[in-house]
């Protein structure tokens, strides 16, 4: 499904047109948008949808890098489109926009995030207060070793960029993925949590932390400069210790 460039869409007086190719189903559709100063990729998609083709589907919310919902594959790389300037990624004046990889496509550039969050559930990425939680809030000193261990990891906003960048998810769809494992690591270091045994068992399986090949794709592509690879390495250590403890108890 390839349409000719719509040069009529280029605003009068514009000195240069940006060629935008958008993956739509099995084909690619071409558009032309005027280049503007400080233009973001999300600006481009919004202009196409509002001015040229109202049928184009995509997702966004905050526009300032807080929600993570505008993720797309831009010229082959998963990114937040609201924080990606056209000048930085399209110096030759061409953009190829595709949906995030490793997730089902709802329509055009919008993907279904349900498998992503289902893997959070499988990794026990939720706080477990136990059957008899304490009456008062627990104090967690900011300088405690456990808190410092996960200080960066708790800033994840679940955008799915690392999941889309992960080679292992592409090879093994059952793999829990870097975001779910990063979340598990933050909870493993939460001194208030009472679900550690079940969580470590959940992330130690065939599709868990030990499947990671440490390609560092998640760390390389994270828009917030987090390091899921190192969180996964921490889980490998803790699941190994848990296995040794079980072995000692048997003896």
Automatic annotation (TrEMBL):
Cofactor binding summary note: Binds 1 [4Fe-4S] cluster.
Entry EC number(s): 1.3.5.1
Sequence ranges assigned to domain 4Fe-4S ferredoxin-type in this UniProt record: 146-176
Keyword Metal-binding: yes
Pfam assignment, any one: Fer4_8
Gene3D superfamilies according to UniProt: 3.10.20.30, Alpha-helical ferredoxin
Complex formation: Part of an enzyme complex containing four subunits: a flavoprotein, an iron-sulfur, cytochrome b-556, and a hydrophobic anchor protein.
Species of provenance: Methylobacterium gregans
Name recorded for this polypeptide: Fumarate reductase iron-sulfur subunit
Family the UniProt entry places it in: Belongs to the succinate dehydrogenase/fumarate reductase iron-sulfur protein family.
Pathway connected to this protein: Carbohydrate metabolism; tricarboxylic acid cycle; fumarate from succinate (bacterial route): step 1/1
Alphabetical UniProt keywords: 2Fe-2S, 3Fe-4S, 4Fe-4S, Iron, Iron-sulfur, Metal-binding, Oxidoreductase
Cofactor(s) named in the record: [4Fe-4S] cluster; [3Fe-4S] cluster; [2Fe-2S] cluster
Catalyzed reaction equations: a menaquinone + succinate = a menaquinol + fumarate
Domain 2Fe-2S ferredoxin-type: start-end pairs: 18-103
GO molecular function: 2 iron, 2 sulfur cluster binding; 3 iron, 4 sulfur cluster binding; 4 iron, 4 sulfur cluster binding; electron transfer activity; metal ion binding; succinate dehydrogenase (quinone) activity
